[in-house]
Amino acid sequence: MSVYSIISSVIIGLWAGLFTGLLTDEDEVLGFIPKLYRKVLGLTENDGLVGWKYTIAKPLFLCAVCHAGQVSFWSYFLIFPGWQFFHHFAFVVVAMFTAHEAAKRFGTWN
User: N or C: which end of the chain has fewer CB within 10 A?
Assistant: First the structure.
């Protein structure tokens, strides 16, 4: 992996940790995203996210590792020309590990 790909992967992981934790909390800048998701699905604040609704919400804003995995998996195809399995795999793993550590540091890891 090149230095550029490692830095890109770490940035994605840090973004995921911040986005799913601090930035989407109720009174934060992106706190409207969970509310908008519930509104689109016709759910109230007291309704739980179960089944497919939880499955969709988890990588969107509930889980830092899931968010980092999805963002890094799909952004790899945009950032790097040509596909190499092991490079792609390492890119995703570094992003997910960084998101895990960021979520622990920011106090959002359950």
Answer: C
Burial of 36 (0-12, 13-18, 19+ CB in 10 A): exposed
> Which residue type, as a one-letter code, is found at position 88?
H
The predicted model scores a pTM of: 0.86
pLDDT tens digits, 68-80 = 999 999 999 999 9
Distance CA 99, CA 16 (A): 6
Contact partners, residue 70, CB within 8 Å, separation at least 6: 59
Domain ranges of the chain: 3-105
CA distance linking residue 61 with residue 18, whole number of Å:
10
Between helices 85-105 and 64-79, what is the axis angle to 10°? 140
Checking if the pLDDT of 62 tops 90, the result is no
Judge whether residue 45 has pLDDT over 90.
no
